[in-house]
């Protein structure tokens, strides 16, 4: 993956957002090739604001309504806030604070429009990239649900965002049922990271959002990367079933490919979890690994801001900075990652370090370690 954080390195200590490679093969493109009508609505943030080809509409989505980076990240071409751009940058829909309870209500309305205007004889793929309860959601109108609770105002607003998101998901599911397609639709709901926390903002510990898990958003401990996935698919997934199978987002594309009869793209090392959904034997990953570069926009980058972790069966290895000691945890006995067992199992640590170095693909904007030692060499590499 060529994007490993909010900002990549562009030389001369300059960090900026990195766009998805133009030749990257997306879910939208894969499903469109199979005759699906495709739509993306919500938060994209995989683009360069000045290159519309990198927006969702340029990556396989027939209908794309997305927000754009705030002006502080794009001083050359500042985009006004609180609006969704439709199929490029020529048409936009403003978010009317007085009309909608939250931005996700507007997004759900647009999903209704897509469902109503689609070609009914063809299947559809709808990617709803809801924003709540993201910390930068902006103003919401209905913040009084929890006025009688003895909570800080910021936590009342956070709880309201979650309630509002639940309402929009409910609206969407009811609409799918109303138009007669819910019984033949696979619905997947998940999150891209653990609970958010920031100085002066929502405290992820206030509602015990991650339970016993350590860390939150941008951490590579379990609290940052371990999230639930809910699936509904009538006639295929048995209701009220649960599983402890561990999968990663790289598994989504091969799963959808197998469902629609498309070849599994060569670009992915994911495993289809379709067998898991239908109650058949499921293959497992030998290991899963994560690599993340902390943003360089608005913060000092400790140890290069570079983070890695690996999950191999019950073992979890973590290191923040390539020159730091690798931590090792046994998740079967220590889900909170509180007891570092690295000194007791040096052989496993050595194997994990080998994975850290080899189970990755180098990319210019996110150099290994996150620390630029030679600016001249780096500038040559990224030209």
Task: Please write out the topology.
Elements: E1 8-9, E2 15-16, H1 27-33, E3 37-42, E4 63-66, E5 83-86, E6 91-94, H2 103-117, E7 124-129, H3 153-178, E8 187-190, H4 222-225, E9 229-232, H5 252-260, H6 274-277, E10 288-293, E11 306-312, E12 315-320, E13 327-330, H7 346-358, H8 375-382
Parallel strand pairs: 3-4, 3-7
Antiparallel strand pairs: 1-2, 4-5, 5-6, 8-9, 10-11, 11-12, 12-13
Helix pairs in contact: 2-3
Nutshell version of this structure?
This protein is α+β, with helices and mostly antiparallel strands and 383 residues long. 22% of the residues lie in helices and 15% in strands.
Q: How does this structure look, described?
A:
The protein is built from eight helices and 13 strands. With 383 residues, the protein is of the alpha+beta class. It folds into two domains: 267 residues, Alkaline Phosphatase, subunit A (3-Layer(aba) Sandwich), CATH 3.40.720; 95 residues, 2-Layer Sandwich (Arylsulfatase, C-terminal domain), CATH 3.30.1120. Helix 2 packs parallel to helix 3. The longest helix is centred in the middle third of the chain and has 26 residues. The radius of gyration is 22 Å and the shape is globular.
């Amino acid at each position: 993956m060529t994007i490993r954080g909010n900002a990549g390195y562009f030389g001369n200590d300059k960090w900026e957002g990195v766009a998805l490679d133009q030749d990257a093969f997306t879910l939208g493109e894969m499903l469109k090739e199979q005759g699906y009508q495709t739509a993306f609505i919500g938060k994209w943030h995989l683009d360069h604001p000045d290159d519309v080809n990198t927006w969702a509409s340029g990556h396989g989505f027939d209908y794309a309504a997305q927000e754009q980076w705030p002006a502080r990240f794009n001083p050359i071409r500042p985009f006004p806030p609180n609006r969704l751009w439709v199929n490029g940058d020529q048409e936009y829909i403003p978010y009317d604070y007085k009309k909608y309870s939250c931005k996700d209500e507007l997004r759900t309305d647009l999903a209704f429009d897509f469902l109503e205007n689609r070609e009914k004889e063809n299947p559809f793929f709808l990617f709803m990239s809801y924003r709540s309860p993201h910390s930068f959601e902006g103003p919401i109108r209905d913040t009084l649900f929890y006025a009688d609770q003895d909570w800080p105002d910021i936590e009342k607003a956070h709880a309201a965002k979650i309630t509002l998101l639940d309402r929009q998901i409910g609206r969407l599911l009811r609409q799918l049922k109303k138009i007669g397609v819910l019984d033949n639709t696979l619905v997947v709901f998940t999150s891209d990271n653990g609970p958010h926390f920031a100085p002066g903002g929502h405290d992820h510990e206030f509602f015990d959002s991650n339970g016993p898990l350590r860390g939150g958003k941008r951490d590579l401990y379990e609290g940052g990367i371990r999230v639930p996935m809910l699936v509904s698919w009538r006639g295929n997934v048995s209701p009220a079933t649960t599983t402890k199978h561990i999968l990663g987002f790289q598994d989504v594309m091969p799963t959808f490919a197998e469902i629609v009869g498309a070849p599994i793209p060569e670009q992915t090392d994911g495993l289809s979890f379709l067998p898991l959904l239908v109650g058949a034997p499921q293959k497992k990953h030998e290991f899963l690994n994560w690599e993340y570069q902390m943003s360089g926009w608005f913060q000092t980058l400790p140890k290069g801001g570079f983070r890695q972790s690996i999950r191999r069966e019950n073992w979890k290895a973590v290191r923040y900075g390539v020159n730091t000691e690798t931590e090792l945890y046994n998740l079967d006995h220590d889900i909170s990652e509180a007891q570092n067992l690295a000194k007791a199992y040096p052989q496993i640590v050595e194997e994990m370090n080998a994975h850290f170095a080899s189970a990755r693909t180098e990319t210019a904007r996110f150099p290994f370690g996150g620390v630029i030692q030679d600016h001249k060499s780096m500038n040559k590499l990224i030209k």
